[in-house]
Every structure is written in C-alpha cells, then in structure tokens.
Amino acid sequence: MSTAAVPPILLDPATIRARVERLLYDFLDDQEQGAPDLPELALFTGKLRAMLAAGGKRVRPVLCLVGWHSITDRTPPPAVWRVAASLELFHTFALIHDDIMDNSDTRRGQTTAHRALATQHAGRRDADSLGVNTAILLGNLAFGWSYELLHADDVTPAQNRRTRPLLNALRTEALVGQYLDLAAAGKPDADPHIAWRIIRYKTAKYTVERPLTLGATLASATDQQLNALSAYALPLGEAFQLRDDLLGIWGNPAETGKSTLDDLREGKHTVLYALALQRATIPQQRSLHRAFGQPHLTETDAEDIRSVLTASGARTTTEQMITDRREQALAALHTADFRPTGPIWLRHLAHTLTTRSGLSLTDTNEGTVGTGELPSRPDTPRAPTEKTSPGPGV
Questions:
Q1: What's the CATH number where 218 sits?
Q2: Is residue 380 situated within a structural domain?
Q3: CA atoms 276, 180, 64, 252: torsion sign
Q4: Is residue 392 part of a domain?
Q5: Helices 41-53 & 13-33, crossing angle to 10 degrees?
Q6: Is there a domain that residue 141 lies in?
Q7: pLDDT in tens, the chain (394 residues)
Q8: In terms of residue numbers, what domain contains 130?
Q9: Is residue 98 part of a domain?
Q10: Number of domains the chain contains
C-alpha cells in the first residue's frame, strides 16, 4: 500500500459539503422530472432544498469520507458519496420529525419545516395542524428517498450488502434513542443511566460511529480497524452530545440557531441535569423542579436553573467529562494501523466536535474557538506546488 498521504483537498469539509449537496440537489431534480403529473411534489422538494441551503456542518458525510480515507489512499468511488448523501438526507428527515416532537420554532436560525409549511395555508383555521401533518409527510419522503439514493447503477450489489446492515442499525438505534428521549422528557431523575443511553443511541452511534465505520467498511477495513474506530467514535459522540447539552442552555442562539429555552421547556433529561439533582441542596432542588419542563418557562426561570447547574458543580463536571472522553477517543487511534490522513482528521475532528460555537471557550491545544464550523482543513503536509481536484460534481 502506498505511503503517500491523501491530498488534503479530498478531505476538505467544504468540498465534501459541496459535493454531497450537489448530489442531493441533482437527486431532488430527478424526482421532480420523474413525476411530471405531480406538480405538488415541488412543495416537498422545494422545502428539502431550503433546509439543505440553511446550512449545517454535514458531520455525518464528513465522517463517512474520513472513515474511507482512514483505511485506503484510493479516491472514493461514487458509492461512498451516495452513502454520505444518504446519511444527510436521513438526518434531514430526523430533524423534521424531531422539531415536530419538540414543538420547536427554529432550526439553524430558520423557521422549522412544520411552522413554515403552516404559513402556506395562512387563513385556514387548521393551518397549524396542516403544517404539522404536511411536515410528517415531508419527513417520510426524505426517509424513503435516503434509501432510494443507494439504488443506483454506481452502487454494486457487494457494496449494498456491506452497507445495508449498518444503515439499518443506524436507523433503528436513532429511533430507539429518540423514543428514550421523548419518554424521559419532563421526568427529572438524578440517575443518569437513561440519559447516557439516550446519548449512546441518539448521538454517539448515529452521529459518529455508524457514519465513520460505514466509510471504513466500504474501504474493506479489518475488524481491528473497525473496533478502533468504534472505540474512538463512542466517547467522542458522548462528548459531542454533552457539549450540545451545554449549548442548549448557555449557547448563543445567533450562532447555534436554537433557543436556549427549548431544552428547559421540554424538560430534556440530560447527564448535566441528573448531576445537578444529585448535588443540589433541597432549596436548589425545589427551584429546579418548579421551573424545569414548564412549557411557558421564562428567561428569569431559565437563569434560576442555570445558577443551580453552575453552583452545584454540574456544569464544571460536564466540561471535565467532555475533556476525558475526547482524550479517550484520541487514545483509541493508537490501537490499529490507519492511513496517515485519516488520523490527522480524526484528531482534528475530536477537538472541533467537542469545542463548538456558542460558548466562549479556549482550549490549550487548539486556541480560541471560533464559529464552530468544520474548518477548511487542518495543517497537513504537502508540496507547495501540488495541484488537486475535488472531483466531479462539486
């Protein structure tokens, strides 16, 4: 196997995002062109395009490509890009339904799908329910199309056999994680066991492990390599969600695109909140129980909760958990042999995904955190005159 590093441009997240988005836009165009007798379909494809255009880090497609490049120096074939795009379309479905379940108004700084679709029927008394029902259909369509993306001539039967079980596991785990999240909401509990299970299935496996190992599996990774990638992904996914929980309470909505009241109003069961209940004084516990999970919680109520989360030490402990899990993830990279470029990006992503926007953080290894977006690429050695191409479709 060649020892030459993969040209860094091939792992530029901006390039990956652009190519995945182009593939998805082309796919949506094909769906419209294939159904000329269904003009109503444009409502759905238009909303999906708008959601894709609203942004997002495309973490799952990036990890899928990083998984591939961790195993091989070969240029990823179309099947890898289709799997990456399928992950993003499935994630779009999950966001649509998640926003309905959470009764959220905004996503990525934009109006959520069910709210936006309700405005299409302004003036009707049932506009809100029609918006929700239409968004459910939109999510169902995105879910089905995420499979359809893989039914192409450039995806071989062998590639389908390797990816289908992993994709099915990802979708089943995400569903179970979402159910656990819904069932635990509004039921404060000092036992973090359920909160950790929610993180495991809704985030660690869904967001990090499965996309990473999907790309590696397509590259014919060994069991040792897959085990090492899982040992990296699971603690990193936990740290990623712990950071998200902090951002959900102390984040800057202008940067996160999400209100800092939503999780508190929902009564989201998190490790952070369980730690606070364990350590809070009786008066502090009363303060938490009084406001947490109230649908009309005010900013003043939220400040009371934040003060208890801080005073109890729950916030500081959560930060330490993030650091510990990041270090655990990085240590796992030494347990198997990978191609040079993969670990460079895996180390970089371990910091990027755990030090995200919305909190004024400084990491002694990475410097001050900026927007939280996946940057163009880490400093990777290459010749100054090297010319690389991102490939077709970008």
A1: 1.10.600.10
A2: no
A3: negative
A4: no
A5: 170
A6: yes
A7: 333 444 444 568 888 999 999 999 999 999 999 999 999 999 999 999 999 998 888 999 999 999 999 999 999 999 999 999 999 999 999 999 999 998 888 888 789 999 999 998 888 999 999 999 999 999 999 999 999 998 877 778 888 888 899 999 999 999 999 999 999 988 878 899 999 999 999 999 999 999 999 999 999 999 999 999 999 999 999 999 999 999 999 988 877 767 888 889 888 999 999 999 999 999 999 999 888 989 899 999 999 999 999 999 999 999 999 999 999 999 999 999 999 888 999 999 999 999 874 332 223 233 322 333 444 444 433 333 333 322 322 2
A8: 8-368
A9: yes
A10: 1
Report yes or no: 43 and 31 within 8 Å, Cβ to Cβ.
no
Residue 329 tokens, joined? 């993830």
In this structure, are residues 216 and 244 in contact, taking their beta carbons and an 8 Å threshold? Answer: no
Distance CA 146, CA 228 (A): 28
